[in-house]
Specification:
heterodimer, A: about 600 residues, alpha/beta, Rossmann fold, 3 domains, 17 helices, about 30% helix, about 15% strand, disordered N terminus, B: about 190 residues, mainly beta, Jelly Rolls, seven-stranded antiparallel β-sheet, five-stranded antiparallel β-sheet, about 5% helix, globular
Chain lengths: ~600, ~190
């Protein structure tokens, strides 16, 4: 019996028992259950074929298939007959508990999902009717049958090689920045795999090998992981849309330790499945306008997910726009574009990969160089560094991890126009992406948890060296920015995210800090290393004052200035990271 | 589970929160020790309202959810915090959003409107930052907190309804669904 959760996620159809027994010949048994499938709105049937079934137990089963109203009729000694018999799913094959669901469908697009439900949800054996519409495998539609975006994304390009394998579509990154974590996407029920090609392209262009299964069939995961070309991929993450997410969860529970991460796209674990105790990175992505897997339903599963699960919401997103296959009649109307929803989904899944790879990273030692002037310090010599760099002299840099993290979040929260007086514009950014610092360039650069770990460790050591108690940050924005600058350099170096050459280039720049700056959203730096960089704030925007005419900076002031409010803003660690990368690129 | 109810946008009074309060949990307690409270000289009251946001679907027209309006009075110029507990705490839960506006029946014409979608976790037991939070300085007067599931507009708040889709006979909203339960805590020199 399918769970209601699974059935609901299927959209307009669910488990589909079907018509005479051409596929699976054992048709005797205690009786048949004809019922009106409340999700598919078809007349379906189950045959109770195992010896353990009695008239009583079979009739009870027949009357309790779903937890919402539906019509059923148990026929003692009866034989199933349904109109469009395409396949059978046999549960407990060959045992005394055996029962057979007759699958009923008219659209071949459903076949892969029928197979997936049987194998992965019902744990049954699947028998397509010979010569029927499900006897030839899932269809491979041509471009005329696809959404234009899906068709375009099926083409190989300079960055991604697309190949059709027997059970999946492969999106192989061709660039130099290939990640060591791969992603396997489970399509939603009755959705062609090509519908996820734009998402797979986006991930692959970010260096993440991505495979889209032909259908939400857990049995095909092994064919991806075991492919010879994927031998170098150290870790795998699964992501599943709708029914695909339900099936991905079941795969993870059935194959513990096989994958390191899970992305749920408008999906949630079946009511009997619990991931909360697993060492698994999870992101649950949902659209606020989804009427098929509603936000309430997504949030209801929080107790069955690991405690550090991230929830990423897409404002105005709906159910169907997680793929490119058109609108579903029962869905909510999207209030954002499909491309925007796809981009945010890709960013969220990329963040998941970042978390997975950060968890694998070697613990970071907190000795080494600190700060702007590249003062090399030995362990225990932080006070010398502080004296040399000016770090901490004007303010007290000591704050514990929680305060520091909270300060970073508040910076964003306060700068959100939505919290300002006078207007309430929409913000089409996932909050957690903002919290990790990369608000406008969602997919680059990666923000590793390891960087934060380094920051925290460094701060803890500084506190210890200075004998300071944890307390809130004091001093000016300039103090905080100088501190953040110094600490960012430290953990970028120690996390080996900047090379010696990179650091040498940064050495050529000079920095000073204005008292107040606005939170920037989109920097573009062009400059030369002879410039003196000064962060200043005027009445409406953040600017960079330089002494070299070749330097130019464009920082979008709209976040803070739109509401006519000014804040004392510190630049986040991540913002410095972005700035450093821009400066390195601009340095000969 | 309650049956789906047709409530047109026009039929929902802006004070829907009041007539729903009959089935709500309301309490008031003095001298809350929360660190976000206003200075000591300001009287502090913590008001709690616990109720549901409902799915609305008449089967032929709009599908969406209700928006509650919770009126309250600020007794003196002071800091008022509005904290929502829902995601991760209730089942069903919702990803809440709130608007705060003076109680004069119009949001657009006001010069003081606050809204928050994702706020700070923790002060009221929230574990997810999907819960909303506001802490603002308010002049004495009458105000309304509008609360619903993300993401609705100011006009939706006035209408008491956020439309998500044109209703279709096969709409699969689970019959009788509650979209989400929430607990709203208003702290400051306030009274309902």
């Amino acid at each position: 019996m399918p769970s209601v959760v699974t059935a609901v996620l299927l959209g307009t159809w669910a488990l589909i028992p079907a018509s005479s027994f051409a596929a699976y010949p054992d048709i005797d048994g205690v009786g048949a259950c004809h019922f009106e499938n409340p999700f598919a709105r078809t007349s379906d049937c189950i045959q109770y074929t195992g010896d353990n079934w009695t008239a009583s137990t079979a009739e009870t089963d027949c009357g309790t298939l779903f937890s919402i109203p539906y019509a059923s009729e148990f026929s003692l000694g009866g034989i199933c007959s349904v109109p469009n018999h395409v396949a059978d799913c046999v549960e407990d094959l060959g045992t005394a508990d055996e029962k057979v669901s007759l699958n009923n469908a008219t659209d071949p697009a459903f076949c892969s999902s029928l197979l997936a439900i049987c194998n992965s949800v019902l744990d049954g054996d699947y028998f397509p009717v010979s010569g029927g519409i499900c006897d030839t495998g899932p269809p491979v539609p041509g471009c005329d049958d696809l959404e234009p975006e899906a068709c375009a994304a099926m083409e190989s390009n300079d960055l991604v090689e697309v190949t059709l394998e027997a059970t999946y579509i492969s999106f192989m990154p061709l660039g130099a920045n290939t990640r060591n974590t791969g992603m396997i996407i489970f399509p939603g029920g009755a959705v062609v795999p090509q519908a996820y090609a734009p998402l797979a392209q986006e991930l692959a262009q970010a260096g993440i090998y991505t495979a889209v299964l032909n259908g939400p069939d857990a049995n095909e995961v092994a064919s991806v992981i075991g492919a010879p070309g994927n031998a170098d991929i150290a870790e795998w993450a699964l992501s599943g849309h709708s029914l695909g997410g339900v099936v991905a969860v079941k795969y993870i529970l059935d194959n513990p330790g096989t994958v390191a991460g899970l992305g749920l796209l408008a999906s949630f674990p079946d009511s009997v499945d619990d991931l909360s105790s697993l060492d698994l990175k999870v992101v649950s992505i949902f659209g606020t306008n989804d009427l098929i897997a509603t936000p309430a339903e997504v949030l209801a599963a929080v107790q069955r997910l690991p405690g550090d699960t991230l929830f990423a919401k897409i404002r105005g997103g709906n159910h169907a726009q997680f793929g490119f296959y058109g609108q579903t009649p029962t869905d909510g109307e999207a209030d954002t574009s499909a491309l925007q929803q796809m981009a945010l989904t890709a960013a969220s899944l990329e963040h998941l990969v970042n978390r997975i790879e950060a968890a694998q990273a070697t613990p970071i030692e907190t000795t080494g160089r600190l700060g702007l002037n590249q003062v090399t310090v030995e362990e225990g010599a932080y006070n010398d560094f502080l004296s040399a760099s000016g770090f901490g002299q004007d303010g007290i840099p000591a704050d514990n991890i929680a305060v520091q993290r909270t300060a970073g979040r508040n910076e964003f929260v306060e700068s959100k126009p939505a919290t300002s007086a006078g207007s309430a514009p929409e913000i089409l950014i996932n909050q957690f992406v903002n919290q990790t610092g990369n608000a406008t360039q969602l997919s680059f650069p990666p923000i590793y948890d390891g960087e934060l770990q380094a920051k925290f460790l460094t701060q803890a050591l500084l506190n210890e060296e200075l004998g300071l108690e944890a307390q809130s940050p004091q001093g000016s924005c300039a103090d905080a920015n100088r501190d953040n600058h110094s600490r960012t350099l430290l953990w970028l170096e120690e996390a080996e995210l900047l090379s010696e050459d990179d650091l040498a280039k940064l050495d050529q720049w000079q920095w000073s800090y204005a008292p107040d700056v606005l939170f920037p959203t989109g920097p573009e730096f062009i400059g030369d290393p002879e410039s003196t960089v000064k962060l200043v704030m005027d009445s409406s925007q953040m600017t960079v004052s330089v002494q070299s005419p070749s330097f130019y900076a464009d920082l979008d002031p709209s976040n803070g200035a739109a509401a006519g409010r000014q804040y004392c803003k510190t630049l986040s660690y991540e913002r410095f990271y972005l700035t450093f990368l821009d400066m390195i690129q601009a340095t000969p | 589970m309650r049956a789906l109810t047709h409530v047109s946008s026009l039929s929902i009074p802006r004070t829907i929160g009041l007539w729903l309060l009959a089935s709500c949990f309301i309490s008031a307690c003095s001298n809350n020790s929360d660190s976000n409270n206003p200075p000591q000289e300001t009287p502090v009251t913590s008001l709690e309202v616990e109720q549901d946001i409902d799915w609305l679907n008449d089967g032929t027209r709009d599908v969406g959810f209700s928006i509650d309006a919770i009126p309250f009075t600020v007794q003196s110029d002071s800091t008022v915090s509005i904290d929502v507990l829902s995601a991760g705490a209730f089942n069903p839960a919702m990803d809440a959003q709130i608007y705060l506006a003076p109680d004069d029946g119009s949001i657009e014409s006001l010069d003081l409107v606050y809204t928050n979608d994702d706020g700070e976790a923790g002060s009221d037991g929230s574990t997810l930052e999907l819960d909303s939070f506001l802490s603002v300085e308010l002049p004495a007067g009458n105000y309304v907190v509008y609360i619903g599931a993300c993401c609705f507009s100011a006009q939706d708040a006035l209408n008491g309804f956020h439309r998500l889709a044109e209703s279709a006979p096969e709409a699969e909203l689970t019959p009788g669904d509650v979209n989400g339960r929430y607990r709203l805590t208003i702290t400051g020199d306030v009274e309902l």
